[in-house]
Design a protein that fits this description.
The protein is built from seven helices and no strands. It is mainly α. The longest helix is centred in the C-terminal third of the chain and has 34 residues.
Length: about 180
């Protein structure tokens, strides 16, 4: 798993940057119509899911748990497509969909971090991203009546933290890749 994560470190950085861009959009345009929120978040879920599917496929044959990353990505792609194809979801429906996605993703991220702890230092970055996912998912389950602006801000905070943590992990993987392979990029 470590060799694939280090070789494709840029996918982690890309996921993080997509998340940070989404966070900036969420912070600077909180008054967006709720339908636009669904479309924007659907695009985010789709982009994040596609990059996770790509990473999972690339890890196949090199890691026994490649399917976890693939499953996480497939869930993101599926939920992104649902949000894009059915934009008239209600606020509670979107909150529930997001909460489920955050909880499942958080569990997968923590599981991967636990596995990586034997191979690298500072795997806590991915574990912390998973904990942030679980925390926000739990908050959304407990109070599904957030207003559209509140949802946008909470999701923006999550996306920013998640993105920063993934960029940090990606750069760490890049450093390990350069040390192990003498890579120039």
């Amino acid at each position: 798993m470590l060799s694939r994560l280090t070789r494709f470190w840029w996918v982690l950085v890309l996921r993080g940057l997509v998340s940070i861009l989404f966070a900036a959009f969420a912070f600077f345009n909180p008054e967006l119509a709720f339908e636009a929120l669904i479309v924007v978040f659907g695009v985010f879920l789709l982009a994040d899911g596609i990059s996770a599917v790509y990473l999972g496929v690339r890890m196949r044959g090199h890691d026994d748990d490649w399917w976890i990353t693939l499953l996480e990505g497939a869930l993101g792609v599926g939920l992104g497509l649902i949000a894009l194809l059915n934009p008239e979801l209600t606020a509670e429906g979107l909150v529930l969909v997001l909460a489920v996605w955050l909880l499942v993703t958080g569990v997968f991220e923590i599981g991967t971090a636990v596995k990586l702890r034997k191979e690298i230092d500072n795997e806590w970055l991915l574990g912390l991203a998973g904990a942030v996912s679980l925390l926000l998912g739990g908050l959304m389950i407990l109070n599904p009546t957030f207003g559209a602006i509140s949802i946008m801000l909470w999701i923006g905070i999550y996306a920013l933290l998640f993105g920063l943590l993934l960029v940090g992990l990606g750069w760490k993987m890049r450093k390990l890749w350069k040390m192990s392979s003498g890579g120039d990029w």
